[in-house]
């Protein structure tokens, strides 16, 4: 019975919600989102071939765009290709509204090599106190992205920046651990591309071992560890010695590894290594890491409590929307 009522309410509110949302002032916090990678969208920020800014995956909706030094505007003229962190930067062919203009409809231009306005996209804009909000739709493909910030440069390089500057090595079953003896085929990091990485397992972020692991552990033959202390948050990028452990020595071979403490995790500038070498982690858990689900409560209970939690958040959100709606009508 309880569940039946909740389901009915959910359906009713779901049906009404878009109607409330559509009439909401997009300036209200919560009625707009922050566009991803705002600080990489300036006209002085070059196209990043490896990780271009792309808006194919964004949700249609209202966005505010935050740069390094505050909110950003779309440039209202075409500068060139290969800027704004992307290949084809969308610029605004039109003017920004004043407060009196309210909400205005404008055209954004997708340029190509031969035309500054090869294709047009609709963009709705409103001036809010101190910033503009833009109603944006996902782009048809990559690398096309909305440009923001005339004459804005990219932020200084920071390997901690998850969005842009490092990748994550998923150590899902934790077999990089120095607790893991190598049964079966040894693995190696000969496929790893040179670059900045954080290492993550189902137990959270991990660090490269700072103790000499045993030969034939970390699911490889020659584990790689770092002979040096972990930098503090105050340190910038530090360079330490990575050691390759072989069957005779803890440090048969050495090379430099740059690293930085990003507070809750450490990032490393890693390079490809030959077989059978592999970066080894110092997690103290057993090997392999136990399944999370096997230690938790029954799935059924989990689902039910999650359902009620979701319902509660949804109800509160709906009531807030309703209040905002009534408030705006008056
Ligand atoms: C910009 O819009 C105006 C008015 O709609 C149009 O005349 C002009 O050709 C457009 N500019 C470009 C580069 O397409
Ligand atoms: C832009 O909006 C106009 C009407 O407001 C519509 O006719 C047109 O199809 C839209 N263009 C795109 C590309 O969605
Ligand atoms: C490393 O090897 C030694 C000697 O074989 C053993 O006692 C120790 O437990 C091993 N360490 C780990 C972490 O497996
Ligand atoms: C680790 O580095 C220190 C000093 O840099 C050195 O004295 C020590 O021998 C190194 N340890 C190993 C196992 O190579
Ligand atoms: C980063 O440094 C702080 C001390 O400044 C330390 O407490 C923290 O554990 C370090 N982070 C990691 C992931 O090691
Ligand atoms: C973890 O779960 C998977 C599938 O659910 C199972 O195949 C695997 O044996 C489990 N591992 C452990 C250590 O329990
Ligand atoms: C499951 O939940 C019950 C009550 O909420 C608790 O008493 C029990 O210890 C939990 N079991 C596990 C394996 O966490």
UniProtKB/TrEMBL annotation:
Annotated organism of origin: Sinanodonta woodiana
Listed Pfam families: D8C_UMOD
Protein name, per record: UMOD/GP2/OIT3-like D8C domain-containing protein
Keyword Signal in record: yes
Residues annotated as signal peptide: 1-23
Keywords noted in UniProt: Disulfide bond, Signal
Domain UMOD/GP2/OIT3-like D8C, first and last residues per copy: 72-147, 208-280
């Amino acid at each position: 019975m309880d569940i039946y009522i909740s389901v009915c309410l959910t359906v009713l509110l779901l049906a009404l919600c878009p109607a409330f949302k559509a009439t909401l002032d997009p300036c209200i916090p919560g009625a707009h989102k922050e566009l991803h990678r705002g600080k990489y969208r300036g006209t002085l920020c070059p196209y990043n071939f490896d990780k271009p800014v792309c808006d194919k995956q964004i949700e249609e909706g209202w966005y505010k765009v935050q740069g390094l030094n505050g909110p950003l505007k779309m440039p209202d003229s075409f500068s060139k290709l290969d800027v704004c962190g992307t290949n084809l930067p969308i610029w605004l062919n039109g003017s920004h509204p004043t407060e009196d203009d309210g909400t205005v409809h404008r055209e954004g231009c997708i340029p190509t090599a031969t035309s500054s306005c090869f294709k047009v996209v609709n963009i709705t804009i409103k001036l809010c106190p101190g910033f503009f909000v833009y109603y944006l739709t996902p782009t048809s493909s990559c690398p096309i992205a909305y440009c923001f910030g005339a004459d804005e440069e990219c932020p200084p390089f920071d390997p901690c920046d998850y969005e842009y500057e490092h990748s994550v090595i998923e150590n899902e079953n934790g077999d990089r651990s120095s607790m893991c003896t190598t049964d079966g085929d040894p693995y190696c990091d000969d496929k790893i591309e040179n670059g900045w990485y954080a290492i993550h397992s189902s137990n959270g972020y991990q660090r490269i071992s700072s103790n000499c692991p045993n030969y034939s552990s970390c699911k490889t033959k020659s584990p790689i560890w770092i002979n040096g202390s972990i930098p503090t948050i105050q340190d910038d990028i530090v360079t330490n010695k990575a050691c390759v452990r072989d069957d005779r020595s803890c440090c048969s071979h050495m090379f430099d590894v740059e690293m930085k403490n990003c507070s809750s995790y450490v990032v490393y500038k890693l390079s490809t290594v030959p077989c059978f070498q592999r970066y080894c982690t110092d997690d103290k858990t057993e090997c392999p890491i136990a399944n999370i689900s096997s230690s938790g409560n029954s799935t059924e209970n989990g689902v039910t409590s999650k359902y009620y939690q979701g319902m509660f958040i949804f109800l509160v959100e709906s009531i807030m929307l309703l209040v905002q709606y009534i408030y705006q009508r008056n």
